[in-house]
Specification:
Elements lengths: L5 E3 L2 E3 L3 E4 L6 H11 L3 E5 L24 E5 L6 H14 L5 E4 L12 H13 L3 E6 L3 H10 L3 E4 L13 H10 L5 E3 L5 H10 L3 E4 L1 H4 L4 H21 L23
Parallel strand pairs: 3-4, 3-10, 4-5, 6-7, 7-8, 9-10
Antiparallel strand pairs: 1-2
Helix pairs in contact: 1-8, 2-3, 3-4, 4-5, 6-8
């Protein structure tokens, strides 16, 4: 995909930056940071955030309105396929039939690495149940292909562990996934700063999803703005096509045909 707009499940988005809503100090900071990011898709942890299931408590949707943003319910905190499927069905009920979801099934509390066996199982169930599934996964190209074959609308390999801020630790596996995929590939997890986001986009990713990198910055609103620019710059660099890497230097100005001094 080489166009300037991101397409997910038949819908077009101008922004290729997707953001989460956790770890901010309050709902106002959440609102301002997300606005500064320019994101149009905002992911929400259904098990941790009130989007209507707890009447009387502050509702995230009051500051992130669904008529302005595409709400992407996610299954963060789920460690089995069954829990993930139930969470997606709850989100669909709370959001009046909304079917676009982010699936993540975690293996353990310490690493937050994806449980691939249950991820594949949940993805198959959800796709059969009519959900449009964007799926968090490892950077294993074979698993990515399997998830695409199941019918997921986007594959989202980790750059590094969730919340680690280590950036893209295995660009080679990610490149294999990108070269083979026929659905959008977005880096999900591990981005720490703007250069990480730019690298993901320069590799050819369709987008980047992040939360901690913005929310845990000293100035989340400023970091959100930086991430917006990084994603845009990385995409433009990818489309432009970088110069070849060389072992030896090459003059910036052409030297052929120039007058040479007499020897």
């Amino acid at each position: 995909m080489h166009d300037n707009a991101l397409q997910i499940a038949g819908k077009t988005y101008n922004s290729r930056l997707l953001v989460g809503t956790g770890k901010y100090k309050d709902l106002e900071e959440t609102r301002v940071a997300i606005e500064a990011s320019g994101a149009e898709i905002v992911t929400v942890a259904v098990r941790r955030t009130n989007i209507g299931q707890n009447p009387g408590e502050p509702n995230l949707l009051d500051v992130i309105p669904p008529d302005r943003y595409t709400i992407l319910p996610n299954t963060a905190g789920c460690f089995t396929a069954d829990d993930a499927v139930r969470t997606c069905r709850l989100a669909r009920e709370l959001l009046d039939g909304h079917d676009l979801v982010k699936l993540e099934v975690l293996a353990d509390q310490e690493t937050l690495y994806p449980n691939i066996v249950d991820t594949l199982k949940a993805a198959e169930t959800l796709v059969k149940d009519g959900f449009k599934v964007m799926v968090y996964t490892s950077d294993d190209p074979i698993v990515a292909r399997q998830l695409e074959e199941i019918g997921c609308v986007a594959v989202m390999p980790l750059g590094s562990l969730i919340g680690s801020g280590l950036g893209i630790v295995n660009p080679y596996n990610l490149q294999i996934i990108l070269d083979r995929a026929k659905v959008p590939v977005l880096v999900d997890a591990g981005v720490g700063t703007a250069s990480d986001a730019a690298i993901a986009m320069e590799l050819g990713c369709e987008g980047v999803l992040m939360n901690t990198a913005i929310a845990a910055a000293r100035n989340p609103v400023l970091m959100a703005s930086a991430m917006r620019k990084a994603v845009e710059a990385g995409r433009e660099a990818y489309l432009a096509g970088r110069m070849p890497k060389r072992v030896l230097g090459s003059a910036s100005s052409p030297v052929e045909g120039k007058i040479r001094a007499a020897g």
